[in-house]
Amino acid sequence: MADTSSKPDHFEVRVLRQDGPQASSYWERHRVRYEPDMNVISVLQRIASQSQTVDGKEVSPVAWECNCLEEVCGACTMVVNGRVRQACTALVDRLMAEQESDIELQPMSKFPVQRDLVVERRRMFRGLEKSKAWVTVDTYGPMGAGPRISQTEQENNYPLSQCMSCGCCLEACPQYTKVELVQGDSESDDAFAERQDSTFDGEFVGAHAISQVMLFNGHPIAKNDANERLDSLMAPGGIQVCGNAQNCVAVCPKEIPLTTSIARAGRATTVRAITKFFG
Amino acid sequence: MPNQKVMIIGGGLAGLAAAMKLAELGVDVDLMSLTPVKRSHSVCAQGGINSVNKQTRLAGDNEWKHFDDTVYGGDFLNHQPPVKEMTEWAPRIIDLMDRLGVTFNRTTEGFLDHRRFGGTLYKRTAFAGATTGQQLLYVLDEQVRRWQSQGRVKVYESWDYLGPILADDGTCCGCVAQDLATMEIRSFSADAVVVASGGCGLIFGRSTMSMVCTGSAVSRSFQMGADYGNGEFIQVHPTAIPGADKLRLMSESARGEGGRVWVPSTPQDSRTPRSIPEAERYYFLEDRYPEYGNLVPRDIATREIFNICVNEGLSVEQGRQCVFLDLTHIERSELDRKLGGILEIYEKFQGVDPRDHPMKIFPAVHYSMGGLWVDYQKSGSGGLQWGSPQNQTTKIPGLYAIGECDYQYHGANRLGANSLLSCIFSGLLVAPSLVEWLKIVPKAAADQPSSLYEAARQERQVRHDKLLNRPSGGENPYLIHEELGDVLTKSATVVRRNPQLEEGIDKVLELKDRAAACSLSDTGNWTNQNVVFTKALQDMFPLALTVLRGALARDECRGAHFKPDFAMPSLKCEEPGERIREAEAWCDRFEGNVDKWLKSTIATWQGDDVELSYEEVDTSLIVPRPRLYGLVGADVIEEVWKERVAKRTDVEATTA
Predict the structure, then answer these.
(1) Residues of chain B scoring pLDDT < 70
(2) Is the Cβ pair A140, B242 closer than 8 Å?
(3) Whether residues B113 and B175 fall in one domain
(4) What is the chain B residue with the closest CA to A135?
(5) Is B202 within 8 Å of B544 (Cβ atoms)?
(6) I want to staple B603 with a disulfide (CB 3.0 to 4.6 A). Which of B405, B510, B511, B610 is the partner?
(7) Mutating which of A17, A18, A67, A198 best tests the B interface, going by the most B Cβ atoms within 10 A?
(8) Is B417:B87 a contact under the CB 8 Å cutoff?
(9) Phi first, then psi: what are they for B471, rounded to 5°?
(10) Rounded to whole angstroms, how far apart are CA atoms A29 and A13?
């Protein structure tokens, strides 16, 4: 039971704000009334409702992304007190116990900021497309059950299938660097998206996508496309970029064995390279 | 017609299932979503997905029994042909999900494993750990990405649907939407629009639903002429973890493993719960239902917990309603072994170990059985005519609705693990129906005048600009939302009484006017979440009124709609002969009630309020029968009822 007797009436929150893409960022302080069972989401809800800084200045509500608030959708990733995590499971009581000072919120640094704490993570989904992270089936018609799968296989694959594309592993990765392009005045949305995709494809794909390759290459039907997936990991921006810092696995909120996936992918791509060389 | 296109609003299970099936059928699809589709609310479903399977068949199960359980669970308010079709398709849907790579739990032999859920005797529920919804959504997301890479599907993520565009003849020929980053408002032409936007839990303030479940897409379609069915039927789950931001589910299995529900006998006792002696604790479920104790059915548990806090003032906390769900008397090792996963959720979000401290829980709004009214075409065998353009169409031709936002599959109460099924089923069903609709669409969207699209866009632009330009110092949309949630939670969740509902309607009408006078704290035109929220808030009122007016008008108890003033009584007579006569009278009253109230509530938007009408329910396959759980004299009533049905069947056989 959280002991509320020693809690302050109010606490302060520092938010790193940014009015739009490429705009300069600035810190802003907000004061929030303490309530039991608060998490960072409810703090941001109060800030939106107040729209006033600690100095009484009227400001627009801080923008942030969230949805399920149960740590299964991956939307609310941000940097809380210097650590990348989901805002929904960042509990105020815990944060206060960890450090005396204010709560500090920043957007992820590896993705372009849309506004305030909202970042554009389309590059992650492009990574899944590039890795062909799906099962290719003949038809959606009734063809009977899928392949039999042992309990062991299921137990190995289930943790990997829980990846919610939140981006924590990428924020923590020293090799994953921000790619931010600006749409030209005369450039259409489609042309811009295409230019983004081709730029993304040359940059590091990251732990989340490597782990998905191992998930699908372990599936009895999806492994028909295994070589294509391995080839994508051997192309520029592939697994060779990984510096083995192992930060990814430490920050994954779903505790996915990302470094195990990377090690397996490393072995599989080596075998693939040798086979291709002699093939 | 060449270059035809379908626009789908929402990328949860239903929207994605429809998109992938349409793509396979060769139709170009645009898919629009408030969030990246992988973050849709479907990820929150934990338990599983129902279907008859090889193991249940061995125990005597079949599709008809799944059908019967579903309509019985729904208190017979579901139209039977769509439910029959859905339950027949269920095994094929599980097969398909299995083929697409869902990491379902397995048996020793490698078959799908199943668990038992409420409302049935069979282990019909396939599951993937405690994240079945997430796993199902991911495989559909992957399939749609596959079609995206082939150019068949185009996804517009972070767009807000502002409403359908109607041609002169009233046919839907596209929609208006707003880019949540640039705030650009744009018209999209489409030969059909499919709303797959999920439930409307946020009209109750906090619920178990995700933040996008405002009901705005449904409301905007409703306000343009699509009728709404059975709005008053809202499922409330008995045990959720109250949070400052949302209410999170606590699985029923906590009680199944011995969890006890109690409150201190002294209101808001300030002592730590474990220091309160046994004699000063009130185990109200055990006390009032000695036979079932803490494992009374869901609706009864929900009503009792609600009642003890709201009407008896025995909530554990002063400013907030909750009761204790206590596991601390059970060995830690046993808890870890049996309940580890769900206890971690509580620990993660409350920062408190439920092995040491009783959990605080309260019922929470969980699912909207009601939704946009949709049609279907019945087949000769009593199911659905596959490929009929009538299936899943709303009152607006060319505008379809699927998933939680249609009203069709769950009647007055949804059975656990049937929601994922109905979402995927309606998505797969609508695809061939749309292919047929595209063949008979009166005029291709591409041939509609551009002035039509510009006018529709302009109308939404004006609304947007007006809001941005409202003078400061007006109402705060976030605070009005809180008030709206309080009114609806108080008057229209667990226990409903007409005076409270009338009062609720008055308050909602007042809040509706106040919401029109909101001032924005952000008047910018870049990622302005303030204006997007305010529009969603204003669009909550038509749905809130639909729920309240439907509940006020329906003077009976049916499924999730509980009005104690109109409840069917228990039998009182002790003498056997008297008791049979009393049971006869009970059955007469039941039949009278069926004649009067076994009808779908249909709400139509009249510009500033809703108008209700009623529609017959198709019960051609299974005769509605009383649900007698927990009633004194249930055995006698059941006997009398069976005799009546047998007699009626004899008469029908003779006259035929």
Answers:
(1) 1-2, 297, 337, 340, 629-630, 656
(2) no
(3) yes
(4) B100
(5) no
(6) B610
(7) A67
(8) no
(9) -65, 150
(10) 6
Rounded Cα distance between B52 and A54, Å, is: 59
Give the closest of B111, B131, B349 to A162, CB-based. B131
Measure A11 CA to nearest chain B CA, in Å.
Answer: 16
Q: Could you say which of B298, B303, B496, B579 is catalytic? A: B298
Q: Considering only the beta carbons, identify the residue of B36, B98, B351 that sits closest to A2.
A: B351
Q: Which of A91, A122, A142 sits opposite B92 (nearest CB)?
A: A142
The reply to whether residue B39 touches residue A67, judged by beta carbons under 8 angstroms, is yes
Q: Which domains does chain A have, with CATH numbers?
A: 10-115 (3.10.20.30), 121-138+147-278 (1.10.1060.10)
pLDDT digits (tens, 9 = 90+) for A38-85: 999 999 999 999 999 999 999 999 999 999 999 999 999 999 999 999
Span A170-223, pLDDT tens digits: 999 999 999 999 999 999 999 999 999 999 999 999 999 999 999 999 999 999
User: Is A133's CB within 8 Å of B530's CB?
Assistant: no
Please tell me the distance in Å from A137's CA to the nearest CA on chain B.
Answer: 7
Q: In which domain, by residue range, is B632 found?
A: 568-655
Look at residue B359 and give its three-state secondary structure: strand
**What is the full DSSP assignment across A213-224?**
HHHHHTSTTGGG
Q: How many CB atoms are located within 10 Å of the residue B509 CB? A: 16
Please tell me whether residues B644 and B599 are part of one structural domain.
yes
Q: What angle do CA B650, B652, B655 make, to 5 degrees?
A: 110
* Residue B434 shares a structural domain with residue B497: no
Tell me the C-alpha distance between B603 and B612, whole Å. Answer: 5
* Residues B139, A135: C-beta atoms closer than 8 Å: yes
CB contact under 8 A, B145 and A125: yes
Q: Where are the alpha helices (DSSP H) in A3-103?
A: 40-50, 92-98
CA distance B146 to chain A (A): 7
Pairing of strands B323-326, B281-282: unpaired
What is the distance between the alpha carbons of residues A250 and B505, in angstroms, rounded to a whole number? Answer: 52
- Cα A54 to Cα A58: distance, rounded to the nearest angstrom: 10
Query: What is the maximum alpha-carbon separation in chain A?
Result: 72
CA-based nearest residue in chain A for residue B480: A49
Nearest-neighbour CA in chain B from A246: distance (Å): 24
> CA-CA distance, A137 to A35, in Å (whole number)?
51
pLDDT in tens, A229-268: 999 999 999 999 999 999 999 999 999 999 999 999 999 9
Q: Is residue B464 part of a domain?
A: no
8 A C-beta contact, residue B373 and residue B550: no
| CA pair distance A79, B204, nearest whole angstrom | 31
The gap from C-alpha B7 to its chain's centroid, in whole angstroms, comes to: 23
Task: Record the tokens describing residue B629, joined without a space.
Answer: 């759980």
Domain boundary among B302, B329, B363: B363
Question: Which residues of chain B lie closer than 8 angstroms to A118, CB-CB?
Answer: 527
Closest CA to B548 of B561, B531, B557, B565: B561
Can B298 be counted among the known catalytic residues?
A: yes
- B44, B96, B106 ranked by CB distance to A140: nearest: B96
CB contact under 8 A, A51 and B529: no
**Residue B476 identity (one-letter amino acid):** N
How far apart are alpha carbons B49 and B501 in whole angstroms?
35
Cβ neighbours of A38 in B, within 8 Å = 244
Instruction: Tell me, yes or no, whether B479 and B386 share the same domain.
Output: no
Cross-chain residue pair A129–B36, CB shorter than 8 Å: no
The partner residue sitting opposite A48, judged by closest CB among B92, B105, B478, is B478
Tracing tokens 């979503």 back to the chain, one arrives at B33
- B571-593 pLDDT, tens digit per residue, is 999 999 999 999 999 999 999 99
Of B500, B125, B572, B89, the C-alpha closest to B310 is B500
Instruction: Report the candidate in A118, A57, A109, A46 with the shortest Cα–Cα distance to residue A83.
Output: A109
